[in-house]
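Regression check, NAP case 290:
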Amino acid sequence: MKSELNILILGGDNRYLEVINILASNNMNVFLNGFNKLSLENPSIHNLETSDTDFSIMDAILLPVSGTDKEGEIEATYSNASIKLTEKQLQQTPEHCTIYTGISNDFLEKIASNRNLVRLFARNDIAIYNSIPTAEATLKIAIEETDVTIHGSEVLVIGFGRVGITVARLFAALGAKVTVTARKSEHFARIAEMGLKSIETNRIENIVSKMDICINTVPHSVIGSTIIDQMTSSTLIIDLASKPGGTDFDYANEKGIKAIHALGLPGKTAPRTAGEIIGGVFLELLQKNF
Ligand code: NAP
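Current build output:
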C-alpha cells in the first residue's frame, strides 16, 4: 500500500466519528469537510472548510451513507454550513481517486462518471454486518411497542434476505414463534433447517390474523389493505424496508393498526458499531486498492 493516503471525508453523521478514528489510527491523512462543530486534536486529522480543500491531492473521498441529494447537497451532522459535491471538484482529483459512498443516485453517478464510484451499502459484507444492529434495534422497538413478551409471541418476518435472516434468528433465539416468508425453494430449505415455519410471501394473507408482530424487510408493497384487514387491532407492524417501505401506512393508520417505519436503525441505536462496520470495510478496501 502507498504510505500515507490522503482521504477526504465529506460530511457524514455520528457513525463517521468512528470511521475518522479508524482511519487516523491506521496512518491515513484524514481531511474533513463538514465537521466544523467539532475540534479534533490529532495531527493526522485536518478539519477544513470546503473552500480550503485541495482536491488534487486526494486518493479517496468518502461521502455520507446517504451519498448526495439530487443537487449534490451532502448531509453533514457536524456542520452549520451547507456542503455540496460538484463535478468541478471531482475533476480536480487525480484519476486514481476513488469515490466511496453508502448509496448513490443519478446525480452522483453522472458527476463521478470519470472516477471509480464504490457503493459501500451494496456490498454483502456491510449489509450482513449492518443487519446485526438493525435486528437488535427492531427487537428494542418490538419490546417497547407491545404489552407481551417476545417469548411466545407469533412473529412474522417478511423476506429472507440479509436483514430478514438476522431478524428471524434473533427473535427465534428469544423464544418467539417465528414464521418467515420467502419465494425461493432454497430459502424454504434454509428456513426449515433453522427450525422455523415458512410461507410464500404472496400468501401471508392466510396467516396474518394470528400474528402479534409483523416485521417487513421486502422493499416492495407487501402489506397492503387486504392483508391489514386480516390483522387484529393489537398487531404491530415494524417495516424495515427503505423508503417508501412495503406497508400501506395510511390504511394501517385508518384501521388503528400500529405501523412503524423504522429506518436508519444502526446509526440511531448503535452508531459506534455502525461506524466500526463502515470504517473496517472502508479501511480494508483502501489497503487492498492502493
Ligand atoms: P436483501 O438481502 O436484498 O433482501 C430483500 C428480501 O426481499 C429478499 O428476501 C428478497 O427475496 C425479497 N424481495 C425483494 N423483492 C421482492 C418482491 N417483489 N416480492 C417478494 N419478495 C421480494 O435486502 P436486505 O439487505 O435484507 O435489506 C432489506 C431492506 O431493509 C432494504 O430495503 C434495505 O435498504 C433495508 N434496510 C433497512 C435498515 C433499517 O435500519 N431499517 C437497515 C438495513 C437495511 P429474494 O431473495 O427471493 O429476491
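Comparison notes: The pocket of NAP is lined by residues 127, 130, 134, 159-164, 183-184, 201, 217-220, 240-242, 262-266 (CB under 6 Å). Residues 59 and 96 are 7 Å apart (CA to CA). No diff flagged against the previous build.
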